[in-house]
Amino acid sequence: MAELLRSLQDSQLVARFQRRCGLFPAPEAYVEKYIVKNYFYYYLFRFSAALGQEVFYITFLPFTHWNIDSFLSRRLVIIWVLVMYIGQVAKDILKWPRPFSPPVVKLEKRVIAEYGMPSTHAMAATAISFTLLISTMDRYQYPFALGLAMAVTFSALVCLSRLYTGMHTVLDVLGGILITAVLIVLTYPAWTLIDRLGSASPLFPVCAIVVPFFLCYNYPVSEFYSPTRADTTTIVAAGAGVTTGFWINHFFQLVADPTEALPVIQHIPPLTAGMLVLGLTKFMVGIVLILLVRQVVQNLSLQVLYSWFKVVTRNKEARRRLEIEVPYKFVTYTSVGICATTVVPMLHRFLGLL
Known about the structure:
The chain is mainly α and about 350 residues long. It is built from 12 helices and no strands. The protein has a domain of about 150 residues.
């Protein structure tokens, strides 16, 4: 009995050492206990952390497309996808572990198995806020200082939240900001060209789907399973669907192309109750349709893949296999992207919401 207890203790020590080194993820059931001493900072930074998560982008980007400016939404999606793919790949190449716990307390459990460097939350927040600033300062008239302050505030809150929640070190956050800044500077001269790629060639959809799928399927292999590959496939597939949807709109003249140049708007119209109700109605209609498409396509694609690879239905572990996870995620979110840019605007027009 003594030898058995000693062996169990040794195995627990080894597992703890490996976990601290990032060799395999911590058990999902493991929950750290903590005491909140300042609820203002706690809720501020938990909310700020949500601004860098998928739930924000799957609401903010469609809302921008349906209610504000489809030209801006297209550019934001393209830059977001580029930045996130490079950041996610960099994580699994560098393999730097997240901060050790203790001494920090990690408030988020889903991504605890991922590596830390660079912070993709910091990358996404910086990319979205400053791409929006750069793209609107010559398109709409507003105080530049106000736009800059909002961009800095948004990105700073998300970056600081990664430190508060114990998910990243200062170096992780600074690395993410620096990588994003370099990417924006390097790609900025080509932004106009990228905007026009959707109407450049009839073969564009093939490239827009095949190349992203190849990149996702050949994602760097990790020693253990983490949601990094699945999240990357979701983001890249959504981007592929959006760009394909814009091409479909242009080729078949389904929806008017986003205008690249607008006369300077002297005064942004004030938000009225009618505009708010219309915007929320368009958003709710679009989100409901997107969720329906997501559920239907996901179920169908999983059924086909389970049947093809002779896997037991509802096997959650099978979903993590490369040949199943990447195809079903890619097909699902490519369909979501196409639906958001093509089907939803036509539905809005049919319902008289445009």
